[in-house]
Write a structure and sequence with these properties.
six-stranded parallel sheet, 13 strands, mainly alpha, three-stranded antiparallel sheet, single chain, 45 helices, Rossmann fold
Length: about 1000
């Protein structure tokens, strides 16, 4: 061993070492004379085996640098130093990354791992120091390589590196977070979460400390992310042809961290949409975990304002507005924490003066750092962050060039031609004319598709003649553009003129649809079976058939054909009337709009329904609007699309403002009541009160108990959230009596359920249980599963308040099964939150936290601000009962801010009751007494919170009179209390 140790030490020194130092290094416990004798003995043996590697003099020994030996630690250090380590901070190029990989491959374990020299104390000390020095270098290298792989999309290589990094330092949380990211990028969420759990256990068991907040926050974030990420891109029936270089360039640029906004610009019909979709698809396949919140295609051809654009984006990414803040602010806040690619298609119409769409894009760039934007537009956005990708037509080679039939333009023509004429080929006869067609349309993909559709009727030479008569569509802004480039309109006009007159009429009529249409809708519009015509128009590339069987017209063609329709006002009027009638009838067939099947039917038709409702309002078709209002209300409510519902109802109220129809006041009253219900759901209680006040004015002039009952229900809900339980109860009882008198079982069930909540809040649990049982029986008799589930959820809350936790769990489980089956996001999220609060009461703190965090995530996803505040308050309780008082304070303050902002007095008081308990635990005696004195005399506070306060009071000397005749003014006192609680921060 001493000989091996000597050779190792000399090989590592790269300089001569004195014999005395070597003797002391290897035999520290021997005399100098004996140590030098030992050294001479082992040198004799070394010379026999390794003489060419040694330089031996009378006084020193050294490793021969001229020998051909490869010393791995020298290569390892040389490689790292050549790359600037350990001080390197700049990004690595691809070449440097490969060099670093080869260098790190040399590190196969700890230096001299398992090699020991019993008598060589000095050698042992040296080897330990050298081992740690090399380990630090390796750790720096693996750290840099891991982060470079993460940034460059080399996730598999990154995972290998992260594992090596963690082996070197199992407690390094940066390495743990990097490995979690890499697992998520490769679709291994379970492994990512397990990485955290392993670290958490190791830290607890060996160091008795929790993971850092950044690591825990990453763990919680990953719990809410869908795996694999959603890829919402349109499917096409034809194969993408050509543009290989453009797609590769777009994918490369979009992969760069610095590319936040790419705008694909070009004239109409250049294939901007299709190219962008294919580039996004390639990006998704090459970097499958590159966008943890997905890639989303957002069509904007129907959007003429920033508000409509924001609604489209929210709908496309599955975000629902549910608060008093503006939709613009809500969506930007949601995107702040998202990592996604948004493909915004047809943006040019939003670039006009007075449109705030561009401001929204700037807001995304500034506030949502992990969101990339890929935009198609006929003109650039002129933003500093913009990467412009100009798109011209497909390259069209000359007929005498090498293999012109392999060009993208020729292949696109052939692909589409063979769809309408399967025996069409590119031959020596047809190829020159096909190339001429492609040249005449300047390689515009849409024009090529339209032209190629006519090979069933015309030879390519005849198509050339038709197009040559007018090239207006090729008009170019450049003074030196080739002659004959004028306008795409010529292609549309030629396609139009080649249709039979009845086909022209039908095609123009179809342009009235918005967002596509079904064959049944086309039948109703045309007044005859439309399927043969639809097939024919699709064959001619004038219609597009989607994978779900719906049809649509390319936006450019739709604009052209709608001009034809609009030129005949009587024709347009009749088409609008038929369109309106079809969709109003369609709505009446969708029941209350709440079941999964009904909502699935309504969703794709929403643009058509909005247009039909607008037309009905303008045509004074009041009775039909009355008949369908309930369906739309149910749809918007279950979808949690409260902002959209309120916007439509308000728009129709504006349109019928001057209507003198006999039922106009009734519809106004109805829409105001429904508008109020939408506002209540998103915490806009003042708007709801204003709507209900107007609705009551209309009610005074009519004898309509059904409408009166609905308005009373909304008034009752508003009073409940204001903490006025007696008023809420009185209003609900009046509504119940009206419903009973009309045998309106649905209305009666709603009132009974609400009365149960009022009784529970007032502390009359027996009465509450009676109301709930009557409500659930009524809903079951009507086979209304959602209604029954919502009551079961309330019965669970009541059982919690009564201390029957097992019964509460049974109710929540039963409700959850129904709500999930019905795809009721709002109800399912509420049940999760309630189940979390139940787990807290049962002492199951980990389960409580998990359920409340999942409920919070869902509430935030559907933008339910009240539900978000309830979940945050529950998480505050979990933190408080696990002695994480600072975390509890933060949760309570966030919940309180939301509850106060939306004006929910009952919830504000409930949260203040929890804050009272927290301050008692923190030893803030004066503030605790102040809160007790304020809260216990409030009649608006729930009985459950009142009992919580009494428990706090029992441990303190605070004699209070809870039955004051006239407690202090709530608003003034509350503002003061909120300031005081906020001031007592950590």
């Amino acid at each position: 061993r001493a000989a091996e140790a000597l050779f190792i030490y000399l090989a590592c020194q790269q300089k001569p070492v004195t014999r005395e130092k070597l003797a002391e290094l290897l035999w520290a416990d021997r005399s100098p004379t004996q140590s030098l004798t030992n050294l001479r003995t082992i040198l004799t043996a070394l010379r026999r085996e390794l003489d060419e590697h040694l330089i031996i003099t009378h006084d020193t020994l050294a490793f021969n640098p001229e020998s051909n030996a490869l010393i791995d630690i020298f290569e390892f250090e040389r490689g790292l130093k050549g790359l600037g380590f350990p001080d390197r901070s700049s990004p690595l190029t691809s070449t440097e990354l490969e060099t670093l990989r080869l260098t790190l491959d040399l590190y196969r374990g700890d230096f001299l791992d398992g090699f020991h020299l019993r008598d060589g104390l000095g050698f042992e000390e040296w080897s330990i120091l050298e081992r740690e020095r090399l380990k630090r270098l390796a750790r720096d290298g693996f750290r840099a390589y891991t982060h470079a792989c993460l940034a460059g999309g080399l996730y598999a290589q990154g995972l290998t590196s992260a594992s090596s990094w963690l082996r070197l330092d199992p407690y390094d949380e940066e390495a743990c977070r990097a490995q979690m990211w890499l697992f998520m990028r490769t679709g291994q969420r379970t492994a990512a979460l397990q990485t955290y759990q392993t670290l958490k256990k190791k830290l607890a068991d060996e160091l008795n400390v929790p993971p850092a907040s950044a690591t825990t926050e990453l763990y919680r974030r990953f719990q809410t992310i869908e795996v694999p990420p959603a890829i919402h891109l349109p499917a096409y029936v034809t194969e993408f042809v050509g543009r290989e270089e453009e797609i590769a360039e777009m994918e490369e640029k979009l992969s760069m961290p610095g590319t936040r906004l790419m705008t694909v610009t070009g004239a109409g019909g250049m294939g901007k949409t299709r190219l962008s979709v294919e580039a996004a698809r390639l990006l998704a396949s090459k970097r499958p975990g590159g966008f943890l919140h997905g890639i989303h295609f957002i069509p904007l051809e129907m959007s003429s304002s920033s508000d409509e654009m924001i609604a489209r984006i929210a709908e496309g990414i599955g975000f629902s507005f549910h608060g008093s803040d503006s939709p613009n602010a809500q969506l930007l806040e949601h995107l702040r924490e998202q990592e996604m690619l948004l493909l915004l298609d047809n943006f040019e119409q939003l670039l006009g003066e007075g449109n705030d769409a561009l401001a929204f894009i700037v807001g995304v760039l500034r506030n949502a750092p992990a969101v990339k934007l890929l935009i198609t537009s006929r003109e650039r956005l002129n933003l500093y962050e913009e990467t412009v990708f100009d798109l011209a037509g497909l390259d069209v080679p000359a007929a005498d060039s090498s293999q012109p039939e392999d060009s993208g333009a020729a292949m696109l023509f052939l692909q589409n031609a063979q769809r309408v004429r399967r025996d069409f080929v590119l031959s020596s006869v047809t190829l020159p004319d096909v190339l001429r067609i492609c040249q005449l349309v300047d390689g515009a993909p849409l024009a090529i598709e339209l032209a190629s559709a006519w090979v069933r009727h015309f030879a390519p030479a005849q198509i050339v003649s038709q197009i040559q008569s007018d090239l207006d569509f090729l008009q170019s802004p450049f003074s030196n553009a080739p002659a004959g480039h004028r306008s795409l309109r010529a292609v549309f006009e030629r396609s139009w003129l080649l249709l039979e007159p009845q086909e022209q009429n039908a095609f123009a009529l179809l342009s009235i649809f918005r967002g596509g249409f079904t064959p049944e809708a086309a039948d109703a519009l045309l007044g005859e079976p439309a399927q043969p015509l639809l097939v024919d128009l699709t064959d001619q590339s004038l219609l597009q058939r989607n994978a779900d069987g719906r049809y649509d017209i390319h936006p450019l063609l739709k604009q052209y054909t709608f001009e034809k329709l609009s030129s005949q006002q009587e024709w347009l009027k009749n088409a609008s009337a038929r369109h309106t009638s079809f969709y109003l009838t369609f709505l009446t067939r969708q029941g209350d709009g709440e079941s999964p099947q009904e909502r699935a039917a309504i969703r794709p038709e929403l643009d058509n329904i909005r247009l039909a409702w607008e037309s009905a309002a303008r045509e004074d078709r009041i009775s039909e609007l009355e008949q369908t209002a309930g369906t739309l209300h149910g749809f918007f409510s279950i979808q949690s699309w409260f902002e959209e519902g309120a916007a439509l109802f308000q728009h129709i109220l504006t349109l019928i403002e001057t209507s003198s129809h006999a039922n106009a006041d009734g519809l106004r009253c109805d829409l105001l009541g429904r508008n109020a219900r939408m506002h209540i759901q998103i915490g806009q209680l003042e708007k709801a009160r204003s709507d209900l006040k107007q609705a009551q004015i209309y009610l005074e002039g009519m004898n309509d108990p059904s409408r009166r009952a609905r308005v009373l229900d909304s008034l009752a809900i508003n009073s409940y959230y204001a903490g006025d339980y007696p008023q809420a109860t009185a209003l609900a009882l009046e509504s119940l009596a009206l419903s009973d008198s009309m045998n309106n079982a649905d209305g009666a069930a709603f009132s009974l359920n609400f009365l149960g909540s009022c009784a529970k809040a007032a502390g009359d649990f027996a009465k509450s249980h009676e109301y709930f049982e009557r409500a659930v029986s009524a809903y079951r008799a009507m086979k209304d599963e959602i209604g029954a589930a919502m009551v079961m959820n309330n019965l669970g809350n009541l059982s919690q308040a009564q201390g029957d936790l097992q019964a509460a769990q049974t109710y929540y489980v039963d409700a959850s099964v129904i709500l999930k089956a019905q795809d009721h996001a709002h109800g399912a999220a509420t049940t999760l939150t309630n189940a979390g609060k139940l787990a807290l009461k049962r002492g199951q703190l980990d389960q409580a936290r998990a359920l409340l965090e999942e409920g919070l995530s869902m509430k935030r996803h559907i933008n339910d601000k009240r539900g978000e505040a309830v979940a945050l308050a529950g998480l505050g309780d979990v933190a408080m009962f696990t002695d994480r008082l600072e975390e509890a304070h933060q949760h309570f303050q966030m919940a309180l801010e939301i509850a106060n902002r939306i004006g929910d007095i009952q919830l504000v008081l409930d949260i203040l009751a929890a804050i009272t308990q927290l301050n008692e635990m923190r030893g803030h005696t004066q503030l605790t007494k102040r809160l007790l004195g304020f809260l216990l005399v409030r009649p608006e506070i729930s009985e459950e919170s009142r009992q919580r306060l009494r428990d706090v009071q029992s441990g303190m000397d605070v004699p209070l009179d809870e039955q004051q005749d006239s407690p202090p003014d709530l608003e003034d006192e509350l503002n003061q209390i909120l300031q005081e609680t906020n001031a007592h921060s950590f």
